[in-house]
Design brief:
Elements lengths: L3 H6 L1 E3 L19 H6 L12 H7 L3 E10 L12 H9 L10 E11 L5 E4 L1 H4 L2 E7 L5 E10 L4 E6 L22 E6 L7 E12 L10 E4 L11 E3 L5 E9 L9 E5 H14 L5 E2 L2 E5 L2 H6 L9 E6 L4 H5 L6 E5 L2 E2 L3 H9 L6 E8 L2 E8 L1 E2 L18 E2 L2 E5 L2 H7 L7 E6 L4 H4 L7 E5 L2 E2 L3 H13 L4 E8 L3 E8 L4
Antiparallel strand pairs: 1-12, 2-3, 2-5, 3-4, 4-7, 5-6, 6-7, 8-9, 8-11, 9-10, 10-13, 11-12, 12-13, 14-21, 15-16, 16-17, 17-18, 17-19, 19-20, 22-23, 23-24, 24-25, 25-26, 25-27, 27-28
């Protein structure tokens, strides 16, 4: 049996591979008379042709080309990439030579949701771009600007200024009624061909894809999708968008009949927030969660079949800490609804607007109790130990927020003595993030000296500058991974 890790390694963003979505098993109203006459010889609900549907929705589907630059330091070494994937990484700007910014061009798909030029695509299609060009079905081209983006769900909202022109658009279904086995039609831009339609069925609903997509349970479809289908729509037989193509599972890099689409109700919720404020605001609790396994439950004196989330660590200064949550607590319900695992907790907390109170039912020392928490706003990027503030703070260096490490934090990463600062936030666009420093890491040394405060790190930075160095060396400890040295470039601070 393939391990979850091996499975996730075969997931490729639809930018490199593609994906599709779903549609209900009923004949479209536009089904031809010929289809009706021959329906008796086909399985119930099977249309003889998707031509009327495709003709109606295709004008709203666009091809997207995004251009920008990428820092190759963030691209993996070719030696670490499985052979079946190297072709794609090399073709799309894999590292070869000095670590200089390299041009990045990507092709994807999208679709208009309003006549005045609002269109939806995947965030990974336009990530890092400085120029976006949208090509319509009739061949006309328009520049596009980003209204907002949400990397957590891989949704981006663009706007095209067509002057007096009204754009053909489609409906993003807010209340889809999808079942496994329903038909779906995908229209998009695979391999840059544009205007390509494929059909299939919904293979599964509510499919999780590991911890990289905590806020999305995907639709799995078998409609053929490939590189360039990213961001394109998956239609039901009524012409409603029921999914946004995002990724495929593939051992070869091409379509093998397993694609994944973001459900339209989730996409619509994200789009509404992007229209309103250009960003998605999610509730934030401030813990390092861990799904409760049978062994963990038994060790805590709970039934082996108990479902819930173990609080591995409460982050200092967060809503969880202020409300009195403690390490070792087990969260079993949020607002009266059962919490099954870590993923469930992320989604339920994220769905609560920042600033609102939520009641948690927790087990502590074998007894259940209620704890009310006023949630903060989830920072820009999730990590196990904390989140990234949108703006730098006084306790931030190289884009990471740090606080003195306590005994529990040092013990968790295997550090000895009284040294160390705990990383409790990392901005996604920062030098720390580029060097894979994460929330929950402990910085033990900077510039060859032990650190116990942010002032110690700043002193090491000043000493490195006085010595005309380009970087300062820090020693980072991480749970299960041990310690490693990281060079942080001074020009990024």
């Amino acid at each position: 049996m393939m391990s979850p890790r091996a499975f996730r390694s075969l997931l490729i963003p639809a930018l490199l591979a593609g994906s599709v979505c779903l549609m209900p098993l009923e004949l479209a109203p536009q089904a031809s008379a010929q289809a009706s006459r021959n329906a008796a010889s086909m399985p119930p609900g099977t249309p003889m042709s998707f031509a009327d549907l495709i003709e109606r929705v295709s004008p709203a589907v666009v091809s997207i080309e995004a251009a920008g630059s990428v820092d190759p330091r963030g691209v993996p070494d070719m030696a670490d990439i499985p052979p079946q994937f190297r072709e794609f990484f090399e073709r799309f700007g894999g590292p070869s030579g000095p670590a200089q910014p390299q041009e990045r061009r990507s092709q994807g798909s999208g679709f208009f949701i309003s006549s005045d030029g609002l269109l939806v695509t995947n965030e990974h299609v336009i990530a890092g771009s400085s120029e976006i060009t949208v090509t319509l079905a009739d061949g006309s081209e328009f520049p596009a600007e980003v209204v907002g983006r949400d990397a957590a769900t891989d949704i981006a909202l663009l706007r095209v200024d067509g002057g007096e022109r009204e754009f053909a658009h489609v409906n993003l279904d807010r209340t889809p009624t999808i079942r496994v086995g329903d038909w779906v039609v995908a229209v998009g831009n695979p391999f840059g061909l544009g205007g390509t339609a494929t059909a299939g069925i919904v293979s599964a609903i509510g499919r999780p894809l590991g911890n990289t997509q905590l806020y999305t349970n995907f639709l799995q479809i078998d409609a053929p999708i490939n590189r360039g289908n990213s961001g394109g729509p998956a239609f039901d037989l009524n012409g409603n968008v029921v999914g946004v193509n995002s990724a495929i599972f593939s051992p070869t890099g091409g379509n093998v009949g397993i694609g994944f689409a973001i459900p339209s109700d989730l996409a619509a919720s994200v789009v509404d927030q992007l229209i309103e404020g250009g960003e998605v605001r999610r509730g934030y609790l401030g813990i390092a969660p861990q799904s409760l396994t049978p062994d963990l439950a038994e060790s805590l004196g709970l039934p082996r079949d108990r479902r819930g989330v173990l609080v591995a660590e409460v982050i200092a200064g967060t809503p969880a800490a202020e409300a009195g949550l403690q390490n070792g607590d087990v969260i079993i319900r949020i607002a009266g609804e059962t919490v099954n695992d870590q993923r469930d907790l992320f989604q339920r907390i994220g769905a609560v607007p920042p600033g609102e109170r939520v009641e948690l039912r927790v087990i502590r020392d074998g007894r259940e109790r209620n704890i009310r928490v006023r949630l903060a706003e989830r920072p820009a990027a999730d990590t196990a130990g904390g989140q990234s503030p949108a703006q730098p703070s006084a306790n931030e260096v190289f884009g990471m927020g740090v606080v003195p490490a306590d005994e529990a934090a040092r013990e968790r990463v295997g550090a000895t003595g009284n040294r160390g600062v705990l990383v409790n936030s990392v901005r996604p666009d920062s030098e720390a993030a580029r060097r894979d420093i994460r929330g929950g890491d402990v910085i033990l040394e900077a510039g060859g000296r032990d650190v116990s405060s942010i002032e110690d790190i700043r002193a090491a930075i000043a000493a490195a500058r006085e010595s005309n160095r380009n970087a300062v060396l820090v020693l980072v400890a991480r749970q299960q991974s041990g310690v490693r040295y990281v060079a942080l470039r001074l020009d990024a601070e």
